[in-house]
Amino acid sequence: MSKVAKFLDRTLDPACCVAAISPDAPSAPLHAQRMRLGLGDFIRRAADGSLRLVSPPAQPGWSTRGAGHLHLGAELFLQLQGYTEFRFPQGQVTLRAGEALVMPPKLLHDERVGGDGVQAFSNLVVYADRQSMSCHLANEAKPARAGNLYLEVCQHVDALRIEHWLADAARPPDHDVHGLWALQQRALVLTALTAVARLLDAPENTRSNEPTLLARLRVLVQNRLGEVDLTVVSLAQDLGCTADYLSHLYSSSTGEHLWQVILRQRLARAARLLAENDSAVKEIAWCSGFASASYFIRSFKQQFGVTPKVYRTMAGPPA
User: Fold this and answer.
1) What secondary structure letter does DSSP report for 305?
2) pTM recorded for the entire structure
3) Helix residue spans in 21-141 (DSSP H)
């Protein structure tokens, strides 16, 4: 196994299913049930053809600068109540209750949420990245901002298949002479959703004893990894604790320093983007959370033994 492959493998956790709310919290069973009921409702909608899939507006190119964040894999948003307004470098769309949106990989987006005057905002977000599948129930944690109310993360080989199904569902064909894309997209979403529901209740899944705060931390880091102003202090503020407490809790629980792990994840993102995208190195540095291209290049070479440009040459042309 190459040095890069070994490095990327270190970003994966042991097989587990972890909830953001502690499994023994009084509210955990209620949130778990609501998550599954929501999934079941959208599975039925996709199966009977009544699910409306909203698409982001076409973007002229890849953008890394602006408000919001992006992920390397596709995300699936299922609107339970209220609305989610997505803002993109070019245009915006609003997701209403009962609708779904597949967010394409690497698409920069910002979110504003709210209730509809009768019901408060609530949605489900599904994300799969190679060996990990996550499903979280979101609420309006701050005015107009979504927060992770309840989270389950499952490590399973089928997560890669879910990632591919969602990526395919986010990629319309160049030609659709017979008008079959809507049917195909809905079928891909249905396939992904049934796999998610199965993984969540797979008997081999076990609950982690990881502190609830760290489970929430992992999602925050995932969502903010590309932000240059991501710091331990800002993470602690979002989690309602001090930076010293968060750092100590992470180190004592994992044996690693939080900031080193964030740097490792940023470099892993950059390595994947270099292999999959032909954008300038400085843009990939920015997208991976590095404010300075020179610091990114120095860190990358220290970790992988080669510069980003050399690594991209070794990885071959983007697919």
Assistant:
1) S
2) 0.81
3) 28-48
